[in-house]
Amino acid sequence: MSVRDEMRDAVNLMVRFRDAKTEPEALDIRPIRAAETPVDLVAVDGSYTFLYNLGSMWLAVARAAAIPYALGEDGFHPRPPVVVDRAIVVSVWEEVVQRQSELHRKLFEATSHRDEQHKEMVNEFRKHLEGELALKVAQEHKGVVVALDGSLMSIPKELDHLEDVVAACETNGNVLVGVSKDSMLHAFGRSLPDEQYLAAVNGMGYVRAPKAFEEQKRDILYGDVYFARLHPQAPKWFRADVGTFRDDPDFVFSQLAAHSKSGLSLGYPFALIEAHRLAVLIRQHREFLEDEILKECARLGMTVGEVAAGLTQMEGRRHGAFHEYLDRVARDLK
Q1: d(Cα 29, Cα 286) in Å, to the nearest integer?
Q2: Dist CA 176 CA 7 (whole Å)
Q3: Quick one: CATH architecture of 37-285?
Q4: Percent of the chain scoring above 70 in pLDDT
Q5: Which tens digits make up the pLDDT trace of 130-161?
Q6: What are the domain boundaries of the chain?
Q7: Rounded to the nearest 5°, which phi and psi values hold at 325?
């Protein structure tokens, strides 16, 4: 059998196994009506970029960004954002970690079982930074929607602020939601991920994930899990975790729908788009940050060649990594 025959058989198998039959009548899909006078929404997101590698140590900069959007007579308008940038050195060598702070040790322990541990450590630090900013937002604002990027799940709990964020939102009457850009959950028990399973359901609406799924995650989940289509022409359903106002999801989703009418991304809160844009700008500042590294290394007596060899790509791979050389050779041989 040729590889083309095997591919045809494989595609045939995938189509048979996809379990694509959708039964809208079996789902308790609730309608959404966008709020006519929505409250303000503050969106929080984060990002990071690696800059330098020296042996088992990596230097990275993480950013958390928050931007409020307020409703005026002629639509929504952004208010001044809050941007927090922090540099961190992470190491995968325990002897180095033990000489660093308690935070570094927690990051190391929480990610010790994961592949590419240096990336996981910086990613957890990014989440930690986002959590600190989200808590500040929740404490300083009243009667707003606080929208976080991603689920309301605390992993690892000792590095997270979600419990405090929920408490602050409850105290100040804020709606807390976490909206995931993409989700591969199978909460509804189908072989298709939930987003694809729900794609055949038309119109705006929201549906609660089965409680059996939530109970499995309850020790780390700070909210109720829903999927929602927030605009009639939205291209997809988004996972949305509701952390406060859990007894009034109609109110929560009416507010989200009012903030999700932008033609740039129908069905996704526009403020989260802006928060994401602010967060990833840290990756466009690499030239300035690398210049600072070069200056400091020169002051410490390192040679230009030694310094340049340690500069990395955004995800932490050294520019001189042999894999990069092989990729370049492979491209040239085409």
Answers
A1: 46
A2: 46
A3: 2-Layer Sandwich (3.30)
A4: 93
A5: 999 999 999 999 999 999 999 999 877 778 89
A6: 37-285
A7: -60, -45
